[in-house]
Amino acid sequence: MSPARLFSARLRTVFEDVGHWALSTWAGLKPSRRLPQQASPRLLSVGCADHAKRQELPGKKPLSEKKLKRYFVDCRRVLVCGGNGGAGASCFHSEPRKEFGGPDGGDGGNGGHVILRVDQQVKSLSSVLSQYQGFSGEDGGSKNCFGRSGAVLYVQVPVGTLVKEGGRVVADLSRMGDEYIAALGGAGGKGNRFFLANDNRAPVTCTPGQPGQQRVLHLELKTVAHAGMVGFPNAGKSSLLRAISNARPAVASYPFTTLKPHVGIVHYEGHQQIAVADIPGIIRGAHQNRGLGSAFLRHIERCRFLLFVVDLSQPEPWTQVDDLKYELEMYEEGLSERPHAIIANKIDLPEARANLSQLRDHLGWEVIALSALTGENLEQLLLHLKVLHDAYVEAELGKGRQPLRW
Ligand SMILES: Nc1nc2c(ncn2[C@@H]2O[C@H](COP(=O)(O)OP(=O)(O)OP(=O)(O)O)[C@@H](O)[C@H]2O)c(=O)[nH]1
Ligand SMILES: [Mg+2]
């Protein structure tokens, strides 16, 4: 091959490589890798968001939504018992030429506490058992040997766990590393050495260890995320989460596809991460336990700001926003007034375009019209998400609090 031909062949390979790189970057940006043929190259330069690519392991089948639901538990009743204290010993020292060496029974060790500890790796209460028994302390021994105290038993719980006892909230484990002593271990008993006194040089008294504390606790999980996606069933919340993060909630054309909250992370430049939660669909009357009921409304409580997702292909889409706000307000006063954005999804459908102007007439220009399916206008959502997040961080720092970090 002539040098000129060789050079042009190499150049072609380089261009093909670059083309492949650009495509794969874009594919990472799009939902389900459905790339529209006429995708504008301008969209490739979204500088602020570094989207996660599909990270499913080859050969590993993802769990179905129903199976995932089985593994996702957001309420648990737990009986926690602290470890029992070890008993004190009663014995006397004796050795050649020192027959009455005095009492030398050691104290028993204390029982171990049972502690609930927040673990970032734990995502639901499914791994929490119904009963925990703390480690008991060892009994005291002769020669003044004290029993060893029982080890602390840690129970790992997800961030956002609310601990209730008899309907009263006793702890709110909403930050990484938070701990709560669920049951105290019993104190160890005293050995007879402890009872040695001037008027009693040979006490035989020793005390048994105290039993550990017993409590029945109700654990309740409230998903913690920066943003919560709220919408009617089939509005496209899960599709949107798949499009902007690496979370893989199930998507289907029937209502109530999503049965448990999913949290996806949107990555921005400078290692900034925003957690977005996909909350199961809400319908009119959810606060009266209609549809999936109010059980899932509590997952919205912990979200710092909200994304109301509206299906723009439905007639009078603004009623969806009104209904969603009403349901949130009925569940908890002021919940609908959290900082929020209104996302009008399915703009790719012809009937949606017609509805958009009506929606904007009713709600003003704050509406972000996009398509989770084709990826149209996703950058506007990403930029707005960042604006909401930055405002939240500023507000938290202003109050002297540490903002939520994922
Ligand atoms: N044309 C079009 N269809 C969409 C778009 N986004 C979602 N869909 C479709 O709408 C249907 C519902 O999407 P989901 O993402 O499952 O909706 P959801 O809000 O999570 O629904 P639930 O989990 O039931 O609350 C699916 O058939 C999607 O393919 C969009 O932007 N355009
Ligand atoms: Mg869904």
Characteristic key phrases:
single chain, 406 residues, alpha/beta, Rossmann fold, Spo0b-associated Gtp-binding Protein, Chain: A, 2 domains, six-stranded mixed β-sheet, five-stranded mixed β-sheet, 14 strands, 23% helix, elongated, binds guanosine-5'-triphosphate, binds magnesium ion
- What is the CATH class designation of the largest domain? Alpha Beta
Give me the secondary-structure category. Answer: alpha/beta
CATH topology of the largest domain: Rossmann fold
- Into how many domains do the coordinates divide? 2
CATH superfamily of the largest domain: P-loop containing nucleotide triphosphate hydrolases
Strand fraction band? 15-25%
Number of strands: 14
Order of helices and strands: HHEEEEEEEEEHEEHEHEHEH
Largest sheet: 6 strands, mixed
In whole angstroms, the N-to-C terminal distance is 56 Å
Number of helices: 7
Strand arrangement, major sheet? 10-11-9-12-13-14
Instruction: Give the % helix.
Output: 10-25%
Low-confidence segments, given as residue ranges, are 6-55
**What is the radius of gyration?**
30 Å
Identify the bound ligands: guanosine-5'-triphosphate, magnesium ion
The name of the CATH architecture of the largest domain is 3-Layer(aba) Sandwich
Integer average pLDDT:
81
Bulk shape:
elongated
